């Protein structure tokens, strides 16, 4: 039996007297399509920050491919194959799409410290960046600056930067947030095409996307996992409907 | 798509739709003709202003100092008001090597000053990079002030406010000795500037340089790409310190004297003004800013010896208000227009 791609054991985070993450034990099998849902303030962002190493937990452990990474900083976890996208775009406004992706690819390939030969002379980095940009259908804007692109396309750069890391585990933090419906199809298609051996945790408000994408769903309420099951069960579960009362619920 | 093919001009023909044309990025680091024009300026100055070589030498040295700040501030985004610390460390290192140890070889002096300044950068990096924003700015000012006072107190070593004297330089490479008219000094300073500029140019176009620009734009993203931000910033800080140290050493060697105001706060503030004036984060901004600032200073001080600083202030306010990214920033829109014409025939 192989180790889970990502799992946590009794993860706790308190801020003063407030418990943001309450004894969360989450397990993502390799290749999982797992979604994390919950109302605003349920502690989704805190949990993502604990998983990625932005925050240190008050108690508990985070394992990546069976290895304890609780003490490792963000960039070290990335090097071990844990990538993420951000809820609000964190991009390089004045870099072109190609420069941004070439940067990310170059860093993963370990050329980030090279000071002598120009970026444009690194054929292997450029070729890989070009392929990634083509996969995400951004080729037509490869030489445009990030700041000049529509928000929906910027969301695709977010994903391109995360994929450039060639992650084994990918955390998608509300990838559809702020994307107009006219542009969301391209995004959904991209997510559906992600390689099956990549383990994905999707944090999302858009129930449409969650129920289309996820094979397992964890419901987070007040920092604790209320329930974890298949989309069918979660969608009809009375507790979930109670939590989401007034918000859109979907029957699978 | 065979983008590895070694025929960039031919491959630049229209790429298939849906594929990425890599040619523009491959071209990005190539020299362009306006750059050559800039480098003709020091040659022209040699013939046009043979009486002012001392001033022109100062400009070349200041340009190296501005370049060093551009690497730190313009590229890495570290705001500092204590950059004179490294200029001063380099100036004293070169001066003490010649005056106290009797080693007057100029190139050896530059290397020594560079090493000492780099060490100073390495020692100060953890403290400076610890904070952010205003905290960091305060730390840089603090380091500058401490070094100034240290040099002021250590009169046996530095000569204190009287300055360090007794600096004798041997001929460069044993061939060219420093002459009374400052011809050797000028050529020496310009050649060092050119070499350091070419090195900086390579660095900013490298993957490392790209990572500096990126972390300047969005430091929070870099760890998510597996990058340790602190390590990159420290490297840029040490690099900037080294450049500043070489600039300081050049001043010592070409004037054969070290005044304590190499470490002064005003020097730190002035170089920041120069960089903002020229435009940060584009290397040439450092050169243009220096030329414009020193020339303005010279001309205005000639016209109005008492109140020239007021006029400089007015010009600076004007530039900051109307050309937010300095003189080079004002050229940007035209350059982008030109670049677009090239890529979209």
TrEMBL record, chain A:
Protein's UniProt keywords contain Membrane: no
Residues annotated as domain ABC transporter: 6-247
A GO molecular-function descriptor: ATP binding
Keyword Repeat: no
Gene3D superfamilies: P-loop containing nucleotide triphosphate hydrolases
Transmembrane region(s): none
SMART domains per UniProt: AAA (SM00382)
Alphabetical UniProt keywords: ATP-binding, Nucleotide-binding, Transport
Protein's name in the database: ABC transporter ATP-binding protein
Origin species: Rhodoplanes tepidamans
Lineage: Bacteria, Pseudomonadati, Pseudomonadota, Alphaproteobacteria, Hyphomicrobiales
From TrEMBL, chain B:
Record has Chloroplast as a keyword: no
UniProt KW Aminoacyl-tRNA synthetase keyword: no
Transmembrane domains' residue ranges: 55-78, 85-103, 109-129, 185-204, 224-251, 271-296, 308-331
Main location: membrane
Sorted UniProt keywords: Cell membrane, Membrane, Transmembrane, Transmembrane helix
InterPro entries, alphabetized: ABC_transp_permease, LivM-like
Pfam family, one: BPD_transp_2
Membrane topology: Multi-pass membrane protein
Intracellular or extracellular location(s): Cell membrane
PANTHER family: ABC TRANSPORTER ATP-BINDING PROTEIN (PTHR30482:SF17), HIGH-AFFINITY BRANCHED-CHAIN AMINO ACID TRANSPORT SYSTEM PERMEASE (PTHR30482)
Protein's name in the database: Branched-chain amino acid ABC transporter permease
Organism of origin: Rhodoplanes tepidamans (Rhodoplanes cryptolactis)
